[in-house]
Design brief:
310 residues; Rossmann fold; Dihydrodipicolinate Reductase, domain 2; 2 domains; 8-stranded mixed β-sheet; 6-stranded parallel β-sheet; 16 strands
């Protein structure tokens, strides 16, 4: 499988490291925005060619799939270009910055009969799959999910500290992870969504977010996110009738603090990317289709309306 990578940041690096362990996946073409980082990334991972024009790159019939890791606002346009060029797409989140655009990209993937997989990577983590298994098999009745994400981002830098040329979005990007995870655990859409933003940053928009969703059975989902926190946090506590489970930065613990599922790096994209490659090769839907994330996108849209209405 020949891939075209769009982007050269931290997550693109993790994708390339994951693909390195999958037989038959070749780094064919890299498309970037700035000349020097594009050249450096292409040389590091052995791409056969690199450039800056996605449409021109995808005119090459040898390319089978496109991996889109570009800034949030570019995802829709680039996904549509790739799908119309007849390529399968592995798309970093968010699939879009509005619900309607997410629907449009999803419908296009069906029209052109190409595989579209959205990188809600937490669904592929072994710890998260264990929680979902317990819920689905009736071993855990959930009363509340409490999620927390935090990273210090008072200057506009990437996850590895290098300067960034675009601004991230705390709702549509980072909150999307925990919103999607919660809805995936519970297998339902919220009947009510409440959200508030903290004060905006002078150049980076909103830096803090608090969100509550009420599920059809009355279970609660509470999510807090911050770009002001002093240390990195990515956590989810699932409070159930039978047990309390806590995911902390890659490890799943029970209420007594004992390990339930051993540590797996939050940067481990291998299982996710194996699923994408298999879906393309087998001509089937991947586990995380566009349709499967539309409830998440609707919840994010409802959250944005709630927050901006104040």
């Amino acid at each position: 499988m020949n891939i075209c990578m769009v982007g050269y940041g931290k997550i693109a690096t993790q994708h390339m490291e994951a693909f390195a362990g999958i037989d038959g996946v070749r780094a064919h073409t890299l498309v970037g925005r700035r000349p020097e980082p594009t050249r450096q990334f292409a040389e590091r991972f052995g791409f056969g060619s690199h450039g800056f024009d996605l449409e021109a790159a995808l005119a090459d019939d040898a390319i089978d799939a496109v991996v889109i890791t570009s800034p949030n606002e570019m995802h829709v346009l680039q996904a549509e270009i790739a799908l119309r060029a007849g390529k399968h797409v592995l798309l970093e989140i968010p699939i879009a910055m509005t619900y309607d655009e997410a629907v449009r990209v999803t419908e296009l993937s069906r029209t052109v009969d190409r595989r579209l997989m959205v990188c809600h990577t937490m669904r592929s983590f072994r710890a998260m799959r264990e929680i979902r298994r317990r819920v689905r098999e009736g071993e855990l009745k959930v009363h509340q999910v409490v999620g927390q994400f935090g990273i210090l981002r008072r200057t506009n830098t990437t996850a590895d500290g290098t300067p960034r040329s675009w601004t991230d979005n705390i709702l549509w990007h980072h909150a999307a992870h925990l919103v999607d995870l919660s809805l995936w655990f519970l297998g339902a859409e919220p009947r009510e969504v409440f959200c508030r933003f903290g004060p905006p940053h002078p150049t980076q928009n909103f830096m803090d977010l608090s969100m509550v969703m009420t599920m059809p059975d009355g279970a609660l989902v509470t999510i807090t996110e911050s770009y002001n926190i002093s240390d990195f946090r990515w956590r989810a506590t699932v409070i159930g009738e039978e047990a309390t489970l806590e995911y902390r930065e890659g490890t799943l613990y029970d209420g007594a603090g004992d390990v339930v599922v051993p540590h797996q790096s939050i940067w481990d994209l291998y299982d996710q990317n194996v699923e994408f490659v298999a879906a393309v090769r087998e001509g089937r839907d991947p586990e995380i289709t566009g349709e499967s994330v539309l409830p998440t996108m609707k919840a994010l849209a409802d959250a944005e309306r709630s927050a901006l209405a104040t």
